[in-house]
TrEMBL record:
Record Pfam families: adh_short (PF00106)
Native source species: Streptomyces malaysiensis
GO MF terms held by the record: oxidoreductase activity
CDD domains membership: SDR_c
Protein name from the UniProt record: SDR family NAD(P)-dependent oxidoreductase
Keyword vocabulary terms for this entry: Oxidoreductase
Length: 253
């Protein structure tokens, strides 16, 4: 099962897993795009791709996906919690309703879906969850960075708790990836240095290798691994100054 599957990292996961012969459950808000994606994956790879329309920033949407994850007659072996969004504006420039929606999607939905999926996986003695976080988890960057830091901490803690259950959990921390994600957030490509952009397909390949190795944290690019290392050593004030500028417009007076 992949959430936020119709574009970007989610679509790359879907394409790779389908190419490997896995049947899929595709979760997103846009039914038309979901059905087009499912048909394309079936035609290209001969796999079954079920469609589940759900808005994971709403209780009803989260509950619908929880129900599917608890279906023991058609169990899910791998859950990829990828749905998410970003805002380019600074704190107090973003409506509080958008901030709360982000926390609902990035934190509550991830917690509830991971719990529902891992519970049935533990009963079978096998399965896995990949929670897509961000390199922003290691930098001060408002609600987005804070929510992704929560994903990393939660996932690594849960991975430790379930270490002997047969269920593996991994937090994936990509950097800037050329997808619709940044366009929807209003982030212009030219506002991000060219060397920081990653390819979604290569990212997924590296992430799945890390997952197969049993890692609980994946930063699948040497550049971003170096950045996360520096983030542990650099003064927080310096990190905040840099992270608040990349991909954002000039601060308002």
């Amino acid at each position: 099962m992949i959430t936020g599957t119709t574009a970007g990292i989610g679509a790359a996961f879907a394409g790779r897993l389908a190419a490997d012969g896995h049947n899929l459950v595709l979760v997103a808000r846009d039914e038309k795009r979901l059905r087009e994606q499912a048909a394309d994956l079936h035609d290209r790879h001969g796999v079954e791709a079920d469609v589940l329309v759900a808005d994971l920033s709403e209780d009803d949407g989260i509950a619908a996906v929880e129900d599917r994850l608890r279906d023991r007659t058609h169990p899910v072996d791998l859950l990829v919690n990828n749905a998410g969004f970003g805002n380019r504006d600074r704190f107090l420039e973003v409506p509080i309703t958008d901030e709360l929606r982000m926390l609902k999607l990035h934190c509550e939905a991830v917690l509830r879906l991971t719990s529902a999926g891992a519970d049935t996986m533990r009963d079978r003695g096998r399965g896995g969850v990949i929670n897509v976080a961000s390199i922003a988890a290691f930098f001060p960057r408002g609600t987005y960075g804070a929510s992704k830091a929560w994903v990393v901490q939660f996932t690594q803690g849960a991975a430790k708790d379930l270490a002997r259950s047969g269920v593996r959990l991994m937090a994936l921390c990509p950097g800037f990836v050329r997808t619709e994600f940044h366009a929807r957030a209003g982030i212009k490509p030219e506002s991000v240095p060219s060397w920081m952009w990653l390819d979604a397909d290569r990212l997924v390949t590296a992430a799945l290798k890390d997952f197969a190795r049993g890692k609980s944290l994946s930063i699948p690019d040497p550049r971003y691994k170096a950045m996360s290392g520096l983030a542990k050593l650099a003064p927080r004030s310096a990190l905040s100054s840099v992270s608040s500028k990349v991909g954002r417009p000039p601060a308002k007076a």
